[in-house]
Amino acid sequence: MDWRTVLPGLAVLSRYQREWLRTDVMAGLTVGAMLVPQSMAYAELAGLPPRAGFFAALLPPVVYALFGSSRHLGVGPEPGTAVLAAAGVAALAAGDAARYAALMPALALLVGVIAVVGSLLRLGFLAQLLSKPVLVGYITGVGLTLLSSQLSKFTGVPIASGEFFARFWELAHKLARVQWITLAFATLSLLALLALRKRAPKLPGALIVVTAGSLIAWALSLDARGLRLLGAISAALPTPALPVASPHDFARLVPTALGIALVGYTDNVLTGRSIAAKHGYAIDPNQELAALGTINIASALTGGFPVSSSASRTAVPSSLGSKTQLVGVISALFLLATLVLLAPLLSRIPQASLAAVIVAAAIAIIDVAGYRALWKVSRTEFALAVVTALSVMVFDLLTGVLLAVGLSVLVTFAKITVPHDAILVRGEGLDGWVDSDNPEAGKGLEGLLVYRFDAPLFFANTERFRTRLLDALERNPGAEEWVVLDFEGVGAVDATALEMLEGLAAELRAQKLTIAVARANHRALAAIQRAGLHGPDGFVVFATINAAVRAFSERAK
Known about the structure:
The protein is an alpha/beta fold. The chain folds into 2 domains: 20-229 and 249-413, no CATH class; 421-553, Transcription Regulator spoIIAA (2-Layer Sandwich). 62% of the residues lie in helices and 6% in strands. The chain is built from 24 helices and 8 strands. It has helices at residues 3-6, 8-13, 21-45, 50-58, 60-67, 79-93, 97-120, 132-149, 151-155, 164-172, 180-199, 205-219, 247-279, 285-301, 311-320, 326-346, 351-365, 368-377, 379-394, 397-417, 462-474, 495-510, 522-530, 545-553; strands at residues 74-76, 308-310, 421-426, 433-435, 448-453, 482-486, 514-518, 540-542. The protein has a 6-stranded mixed β-sheet, sandwiched between helices. Strands 1-2 form a two-stranded antiparallel sheet. Helix 3 runs antiparallel to helix 15, helix 3 (21-45) crosses helix 17 and helix 13 runs parallel beside helix 15. The longest helix is centred in the middle third of the chain and has 33 residues, at 247-279. The termini are far apart.
């Protein structure tokens, strides 16, 4: 195997051009500045001390620079992944902080192994399991859940509830305990973040707001008035080591790891594809699955937690004109320097400022535009997105992921179980055949019925195929002599469908009808031939509808 296939990022870096360096360095410093406050904030979302966020952000960007196929994807701590991980590990740790801290890197390792094995098995297609409405609903549910998770730090009110609606209910009953200085500080920090995002999106808004907040809190001694600060952060660097967990713990973490791998991979591919399309290159879905695995293994080895990609840390280097994943390497070095040189200053960061960073991230991922688009296109898909969002908010995030996947599969199954079908007629002025409901449809030929079914024929839709075809024949009894089945949209035929076709052929032959199959691909045709349905007592096969129609027209000659 060519090393460039295994290490596509390194292949790009091996062709590095000097003129790329300036923009890559500037983008790397900018992303690093974004990564400092985000790493600490997302570590707290994961239920870990802030320095764990640094550990999860040091190696993954460097590893992705080697294994990733995207030149712009920003990887590392991400809020949705952090919350999913926290939900899964908390259930096993049962309040034991030491056990919780040990299980989190074990979960990251398990996510990494699952992703790497998935890439070896060529399971990149799994990214398509989540349909657009389910993705819109899921990400909205995650965003709203993130919002609710910060109610305590945003208001200073102690909130014990771990569920979306319960958190707001508890806050409503404890309004008298709101710490107004905390609420005011968090609100002003959030407004400043949103203003910077709108007016200066290329600036590291989170770093600016957190730094300014720290200076203000220090100058006014706000911690003495009740504003909670982050507290001491150790500057000690992590020692690479494999996570320690029992086989039983690994087994119990598998469902959470599968959910994180699926959601993280889907997010990586969708974000990577959208940016790659703007810059004229393509990403490799299976390689992205391998890259997701390697960055999570890297995070696990340094005591981090599961990681994925960040849309904001991807969009910024793209907008600045960066060319390669050197950006990720520089951002990791910036983070390392910050941890080593500025750890004492980081302890002065107000927790309300970090809460504002998380709330701003939550607001950014709530996909209002996606809902508007779905409403215009399909009210059913809009409703599906709403149901998905509610499932994420009402249940835990992992359950929401599983429901989202289940809903995607259910929608797909429904579409191929009750697919579109049509009676075809020759197009008016066209050299082809169109749906009889089409405005350009002409008149059908007397004695001929052309029927199209737009889905693979399998056990769940065979009865619909049979019923719809017989209904079409019954609407004009005795008129047809030939039935042409357009198999262009069928694609594949299973054993149940072949049994149905055999019975249908006998039934139509008894009515003196000739049955032809047109435009069947080699898979469907091979199945028909193996079942003995090709021939005088079965179907007459034609390459095109026009060829079948010519044979019909010449039948009496």
